[in-house]
Design a protein that fits this description.
globular
Length: 175
């Protein structure tokens, strides 16, 4: 395993530990990861490395902001993907995002089956979407409400876990 792979694995694993323990990924951790990515890319490849870092770091923010706006993904998850994008580069971070959502869907489906509350969760989701779309269609301004009600129940998927699974595929050379 090379230095870049070690740093990416450490970044994702540390984020999972924080997320599972506190429900958040510390901003200090993200800043350290951004600095590590910028320094390693700058030292190893110079100006083109810094450009790749910046592009990879901004892509997750640009592509996932709308999910954060509707409170369907946490800011920490986007910042983690941004930090990882600095290491992985633009093409690999887009694949990482796609695979993270795929793993997240699989984990969510498994949790729904285990908990036996598929109908309840679908009703909650459709009610949430109506709450968001109806005021927009009526021309009213609305403040997005969090999809999650503040409770960390069994149905909650800490998105850092699917991100780690996608990172493991990258380390294994699958993309």
């Amino acid at each position: 395993m090379n230095l870049q792979q070690c740093l990416v694995l450490t970044a994702a694993s540390g984020a999972v530990l924080m997320d599972l323990k506190t429900g958040k990924i510390a901003n200090g951790w993200i800043v350290i990861l951004w600095l590590a990515g910028l320094i390693t890319e700058g030292l190893s490849r110079g100006g083109p490395g810094i450009a790749t870092f910046l592009t990879g770091a901004f892509l997750p923010v640009l592509t996932l902001f709308w999910l954060f706006f509707f409170r369907m993904i946490g800011a920490g998850d986007i910042k983690l993907l941004s930090a990882l994008g600095g290491f992985l580069g633009p093409a690999a971070i887009l694949t990482c995002i796609w695979l993270s959502f795929l793993f997240g869907a699989i984990l969510s489906l498994g949790i729904l089956i285990i908990c036996g509350n598929i109908r309840q969760r679908l009703l909650k989701f459709t009610t949430y979407i109506k709450h968001i779309l109806l005021p927009i269609l009526q021309g009213k301004t609305t403040v997005p409400v969090p999809y999650r009600e503040g409770k960390w129940g069994m149905e909650c998927v800490h998105f850092s876990v699917p991100i780690l699974l996608a990172v493991l595929l990258w380390i294994g050379g699958f993309y």
